[in-house]
Amino acid sequence: MTDTTVIVDDPNRNYGDKVVAVEPGGVEFIPLDERHGRPLQMLWTWTSPNMEFATVGVGILGPLFFGLSFWQSVWAIVLGTAVGAGTQGILSSWGPGHGLPQMVISRSAFGFFGNILPAGINALVAGIGWFAVNSVSGALALHALVHALPKGGCLVIVVAAELALAFFGHNLVQAFERYAFPVLAVIFVVASIWVLTKSHPGAKHTASPGGWLLMFGATFGYAAGWNPYATDYTRYLPPESSGRATGFWAALGVFWSCSLLEIAGAGAVTAGQSQIDPSSLTNLLPTWLGKLALVAVVVGAVAANALNVYSGSMSFMALGIRLPTHAARAAVALVFGVVGMIVAFGGLNDASKYENFLLVIAYWIGPWLGVVLVDRWLRRGTDIQALLGDRKYLNWAGPISMALGIVLSIWLFSNQTKYHGVLVNNHPGLGDLTFEVGFLIAAVSYFFLYRATKPAQGTARAT
Description:
This protein is mostly helical. The protein has helices at residues 42-47, 53-65, 70-92, 95-98, 102-105, 107-110, 116-145, 151-168, 170-198, 211-224, 243-270, 279-282, 287-317, 328-345, 354-378, 385-388, 397-413, 422-426, 434-453, and strands spanning 382-383, 459-460.
């Protein structure tokens, strides 16, 4: 058994730019002769999956649960989303050069086996958690459109469409996002403008302690929820593709789509809506537009979950488990989708845990980002490609720092329904600083542990 995962060209893949073909393999390097696409496509890759009700639901949280005014919600939405979109752009820019999924590149900071920590968490959060949440919103919208179909039947239909895309893989997923983009953009832009004309930005509100930071954390968590997927969708771009252009279009896709729909969600609450389900949007629209919005919610849920289950399966494969099949990734995607559907059945009649789920996302992503970004800075000027496939490569500074960031930040600053951190108990006005503190603790810890442990560096980059 070899101790190195192959990251050289594989002439037997024969996938290229084929759309209706099952993507072979798992998390291997994408051969140079199979590279295709252009940075601009990241605009629709990251716009379409956010054009769904789950995004609207994030905006609803500010005025409905956190006691914010409309304008306070808007500021939290814009700033939180900007940070999450910015890191999405940075990470996406690494894809063309490495030709590898995000959770494989993460091995640089965590080592081959230490990377089990972030890859395992992401596999569960993306392939099961987010998959379940978005499937529920899509199923509820389909049920609202076709009352004759029971909610359970609607869920099965939505999941079947999502799994079909994820099973075939990268090229079909990208094609779906591209063709869904103009339809979703037009419908949701019109619907959002309509909702905002019905809103009352000056409506009275009862501020809750730390509400703005809670909303900032939720919006960052939602945008940054895509960060661990970033290079999964840029690794097929030609290596000469501009990193700046790739990052710009990815960041823009996340930023404008999330900001628009979340602001519409906040506006819907000021217009009298008080539920986290598609009716909060459609109740404010004329019948014809409401039905179109429901169709868009269903399509948007499929667009989002095609990415969730695809990247969830990629994260699972990044654990280093060898599966004896040429279509390993496709098989794993199906398994994750079925498990996610089972979880989703339990949420068809209860969306009350949505707020906590959003904040939990930021809890682990903040420390992971801190480690990954500092590692990249420390290794500037070096070529780390060979390290990413070496099963003997160790870097315990990463998992230790990430674990410290998660544990300490939650212990001190968590502001969840069932657990309040030590400092939050005494100072509720702090809101929820878990992701910010987690990022800083992990980043600083990694800097010093990296210097102390001196993991393998890679080789000097050719100039």
